[in-house]
Amino acid sequence: MSVYSDASSEDLGDELQSLGWYHYDLSRHAAEALLLSNGSDGSYLLRNSKEGPSCFALSVRAKDSVKHFHVERRDSGYKFGFNEFPTLQDFVSHFANQPLLGSDTGTLIVLRSPYPWHVEEPSIYESVRVHTAIKTGCTENDLVAAAPALGTKEGYLVKQGAIVKNWKLRWFTLNRYELKYFKDKESKEPIRTLDLRSCSAVQFDYSQDRVNCICLVFPERTFYFCAKTAVEADEWIKILRWKLVRFVIVCACARERGGGG
Q1: I need a surface site. Which of 15, 67, 164, 190 has the fewest CB within 10 A?
Q2: Where is each PH domain found (predicted)?
C-alpha cells in the first residue's frame, strides 16, 4: 500500500524530464568522479540504472566516498526501500532532514543538495582599464599559439612499495592518460606507467599511517602516494579525477557517433 495517493505514469515521465538533477545515462564511475570532484557532503543526483528502464540509482556523496541507492519507478510513483512516493520531489523532501542508512556499511547519509545536470558558467568578466600597444615590430604572422598540454602535472610524491610496504620518494609526471613515476627527476626511463583509463577511483586515503595520502584504485592493485602538503594532494586528486571524468565523456561521445550512422 502506497503511503501517498497514486500518480499516473505520464505524470511521472514528465516530472523526470524536468528534474534538474536527473543525469540520464551517467555511469556509476562518472557519477562518483563528478560528486567527489565538484560536490560536497550530501550532494546527490539521479541517474539511470542498468537493471532496467524503470530502475534508477540515487548517487549520494558521503564525505570522501559515494553511496548508491536503488530507486524504482512504478505506476503509483517512486519506490525506495519500504515506501512509495507519488513524485520524486516528495521523496527528496521526506528524506531531506533524515539520514539514509547504508545497508552494507551502516554509514548515515543526509540528502542536502541536488547536483544539477546543467551547471551555468558564471558571467564574471574583468573590465579593461588600460589598453595600449608596445612597439615590437612584430606582425600577425609572428603570432604563434603556444600552451602546455591541458591537464599535465609533475612533481615529487612519496610512494608505497608493492611487496615491501616501505615508502620512497619518486618523481611523477602526468600527461594525457598516463601517470608515470621515475626514480628521480633526472631519470629518463620511468619505473612504471599507469594507464588512467583502467583506474576506477581516486581519493584521499586514511588507512595508512601518513598524512596527505592519495589512493588510486586499479583492477589489479591499489596504489598509495603521499604529497608534501594537503594543498598539493588536493591538486593531484582534482586533476586525476578530471582525467577520469574526461575519459568517460570521450567514450560516451564516441559511442554516440558510432551509433548515429
Answers
A1: 164
A2: 150-245
Give the C-alpha separation, 40 to 112, whole Å: 9
The residue to which cell 540515487 is assigned: 58
Residues 149 and 155 sit within 8 Å (Cβ to Cβ): no
pLDDT digits (tens, 9 = 90+) for 33-59: 888 877 888 888 889 998 888 899 989
pTM of this prediction? 0.46
**What are 216-239's pLDDT values in tens digits?**
999 999 999 999 998 899 889 988
Sheet holding 83-85, edge to edge: 83-85, 77-80, 65-74, 55-62, 43-48, 113-114
Closest CA to 47 of 19, 24, 77, 30: 24
Provide the residue count of the chain: 261
Spatial separation of the C-alpha atoms in residues 10 and 7, rounded to whole Å: 8
C-alpha cell at 172: 611523477
pLDDT digits 0-9 by tens, 130-158: 766 677 777 767 665 544 455 688 999 99
